[in-house]
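Quick log. Single chain, no ligands specified.
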Amino acid sequence: MGTGRMAETEKQRIERATAELFLVGYNARTHGTYVVERVADAPDVICRDATGALLQLEIVLLEDRPGDIKELLRKPDGRELERFLADMERVRRGGISVFDTIGSFGQGRDGGPGTVDTNLRQMLRSKILKDYGREVALVLRQTSPIPWDWDVVLDLKREVESLLQERRLKQHPFDRGIWIVARGEDGPTLQMVMPEQDRPSGSANA
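-> predicted structure:
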């Protein structure tokens, strides 16, 4: 039986690669033997261990600026160069700082949250309200080529807890935890945001 890789889109290949990176760290932490079985859709990747136990992964690619991933996945058509030149012209004229052309953490120039903080909050809000079923982990992958300073990233654990309280939900829908595959100085690193949790029968927020 084929693996289905020939039919995978570029986005699915990135999701598969993200899952494989995640499993290296996850298996090391849990003494597991999970491998990617196939790519799917909501959740994005289906994995199984040597005993056949299921682990499903919902993959989210974190971008520095809105539109970065879309630009990365589509075929080049000159827009990347146009975007770069336009940004540089605005920098030259003093309209923006060169730092506005990349993602930022913490507080932005307008006093509001930085680009990355805003993207993370928006993503969490969209994911927390969905129910992906059982045996599912949310895996966030940093796509920026520059290592992020995670000491100044918003406290994702507190953000999740705040969202649950705001929505009056008992727990988030990812019973296998919420994780970040980040770019470290020595290669990818796996960080746990929320631990695995038991789910009650029925809905994740019953």
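DSSP finds five helices and six strands in the chain.
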